[in-house]
Design the sequence.
């Protein structure tokens, strides 16, 4: 897989560090300026969603022989399928939040909905408004801004949700149908939970957990939620909070060591999660332990 086209800046250093050289993300994000005048989008090997950020901007949009006109509004998005390019004419400069999604994930989402290869072919589109897609975009923007504290697992979860939403919207099929005919056997769930506990200090991915369970990405995600009552990334986060709590009450390691052992990106991220789930700071938890001091 190639990296971004030349006009896209490189992926953030924080994300590249967590990925390693062989692990490109299912979804990445970039806030990019769009010049006024005529602009041809770069050809990319991923599907690209462009969410408009800021004030309305009148545009003309051409793909193939089809041309449309209108105003780009904040939160609306367009779809540029992998391997294609669109021509824009903008009356003034604008900004876009670009979400790049791997085509393999779209194919898998289409398969899980029983749509076959035809359902995996995204059509170009413009001036689309979808609250769920928009929410995923802003969450990805926040992750990028904060240095990806949620790690690969959270980004992978957003990627699968985005793929399912795009395929379902295009095909007018309810995404909720995914996985209804199956259940996650108890022994497979146990194997996944044991794997999570054994690798909690690593930047887990949805793909590796799905492999451990023996299901595809698109099937594993809803099956896990059905079996545990919560999304995969939430389950892992709660296990990390519990590991951190135990280590803090033991009082034998530094905050940095505990954060690393529990799989948090930074002690400050660990502290935020402890306050969110337990209502206490690391210092308060350590003091509350037997022999933890005044």
Sequence:
């Amino acid at each position: 897989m190639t990296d971004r086209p030349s006009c896209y800046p490189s992926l953030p250093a924080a994300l590249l560090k967590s990925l390693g050289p062989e692990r490109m993300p299912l979804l990445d994000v970039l806030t990019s300026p769009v010049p006024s005048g005529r602009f041809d989008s770069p050809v990319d090997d991923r599907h690209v969603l462009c969410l408009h950020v800021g004030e309305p901007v009148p545009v003309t949009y051409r793909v193939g022989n089809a041309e449309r006109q209108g105003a780009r509004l904040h939160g609306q998005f367009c779809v540029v399928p992998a391997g294609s390019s669109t021509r824009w004419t903008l009356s003034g400069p604008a900004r876009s939040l670009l979400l790049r999604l791997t085509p393999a994930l779209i194919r898998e989402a289409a398969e899980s909905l029983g749509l076959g290869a035809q359902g995996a072919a995204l059509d170009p589109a413009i001036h689309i408004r979808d609250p769920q897609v928009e929410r995923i975009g802003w969450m990805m923007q926040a992750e990028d801004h904060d240095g990806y504290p949620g790690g690969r697992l959270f980004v992978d979860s957003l990627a699968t949700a985005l793929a399912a939403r795009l395929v379902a919207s295009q095909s007018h099929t309810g995404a909720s149908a995914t996985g209804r005919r199956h259940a996650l056997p108890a022994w497979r769930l146990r194997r996944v939970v044991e794997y999570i506990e054994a690798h909690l200090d690593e930047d887990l991915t949805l793909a590796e957990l799905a492999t451990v369970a023996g299901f595809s990405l698109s099937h594993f995600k809803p099956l896990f939620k059905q079996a545990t009552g919560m999304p995969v990334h939430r389950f892992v986060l709660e296990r990390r909070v519990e590991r951190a709590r135990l280590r803090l009450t033991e009082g034998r390691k530094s905050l940095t060591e505990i954060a690393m052992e529990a799989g948090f990106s930074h002690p400050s991220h660990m502290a935020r999660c402890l306050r969110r789930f337990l209502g206490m700071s690391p210092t308060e938890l350590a003091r509350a332990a037997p022999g933890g001091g005044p």
Remarks:
- The chain has three domains: 13-171, 179-229, 235-288.
